[in-house]
Specification:
The protein is mainly α and 86 residues long. It has two helices and no strands. The protein has two domains: 1-36, no CATH class; 39-86, no CATH class. Bound molecules: calcium ion (3 copies).
């Protein structure tokens, strides 16, 4: 089943490159989210820029919470490693 899906995706990409008719009825959900800039958790940051697209409390520009083990502000620095907690 996975091989079939990959083949179908490859076919879709090829047909798009050739500017031919689309063979697939719809793109998969991830492609749709990426293309439309969906914000799944409603935190105001598009999923493609959000390090936690399913958590509305975590987004670039959020306050770092210094004792929860999460990278709350999406700068890849967690708790004590984040300058916000210095
Ligand atoms: Ca988020
Ligand atoms: Ca944190
Ligand atoms: Ca951080």
């Amino acid at each position: 089943m996975r091989k079939l899906m990959l083949a179908a995706i490859a076919l879709g990409a090829l047909s798009a490159c050739a500017d031919g008719p689309m063979l697939l009825p719809a793109p998969d959900r991830f492609d749709t989210a990426w293309e439309t800039g969906d914000d799944a958790d409603g935190d105001g940051v598009e999923d493609e820029n959000d390090c936690a697209p399913q958590d509305a409390n975590i987004f670039p520009g959020a306050d770092e919470i210094c004792n929860d083990g999460e990278d709350n502000d999406c700068d890849e620095l967690i708790d004590g490693d984040d300058p916000a907690c210095a």
